[in-house]
Amino acid sequence: RKEVEQDPGPFNVPEGATVAFNCTYSNSASQSFFWYRQDCRKEPKLLMSVYSSGNEDGRFTAQLNRASQYISLLIRDSKLSDSATYLCVGFSGTYKYIFGTGTRLKVLA
Amino acid sequence: NAGVTQTPKFQVLKTGQSMTLQCAQDMNHEYMSWYRQDPGMGLRLIHYSVGAGITDQGEVPNGYNVSRSTTEDFPLRLLSAAPSQTSVYFCASRSSGGAYEQYFGPGTRLTVT
Question: What are the tens digits of pLDDT across the range A29-38?
Fold first, then answer.
């Protein structure tokens, strides 16, 4: 079983839709979690950190459920520019980052 | 503010050749790392450094060497390139404190024939 698992998608949604991605992790020692966005043939860019209490940044909301060991990302009012691959990342100390393989999102006009 | 920079952007090598991928950051970050990204797999850590003069192996270190003589630079050396090293290589950095957020360079696409 992979330490961080994501549904690879693709998720095809119309503009304006709300879409949610889930990510599960197996290492209960993981301290912190992040969502990164990666455009085709580009580097991962930090989208947001994920806090236990949940956090929101504009149209994006991240949630962490430690009891069930999953992280979620909700995107409201999807834009064409949100089309990308979203990477779930867990961190468990010093330099142990575990990356999921990503979930592809395509927002359709 | 350039952030993390990498050179070259693209490289083609023949099997057995050696080369160095360059990485530099101007954020005064103590921690730097090298990852490779292959289709269908998450980013995998090759080597990392927690400060000048200190390096350690990651998940997939074989065939690669690193050194860290300055805070800014963290080059990755391929000793004798193999087709299995065809990949996209990303350098990343973060500060030693704070929220553990990493920042990535634009990547180097390497093909070994």
Answer: 788 999 999 9
> Which residue in B33, B104, B107 is closest to A95 by CB distance?
B33
**A82 in helix, strand or coil?**
helix
Chain A contact probe: residue of B35, B49, B93, B102 with most A CBs at under 10 A:
B102
Angstrom distance (rounded) from CA B25 to CA A61: 30
Q: What string of H, E and C letters represents the secondary structure of B75-98? A: CEEECCCCHHHCEEEEEEEECCCC
Smallest CA–CA distance, residue B50 to chain A, in Å, is: 8
Residues 6 or more apart whose CB falls under 8 angstroms from that of B18 comprise: B77, B78, B79, B80, B81
Q: Which amino acid is at A73?
A: L
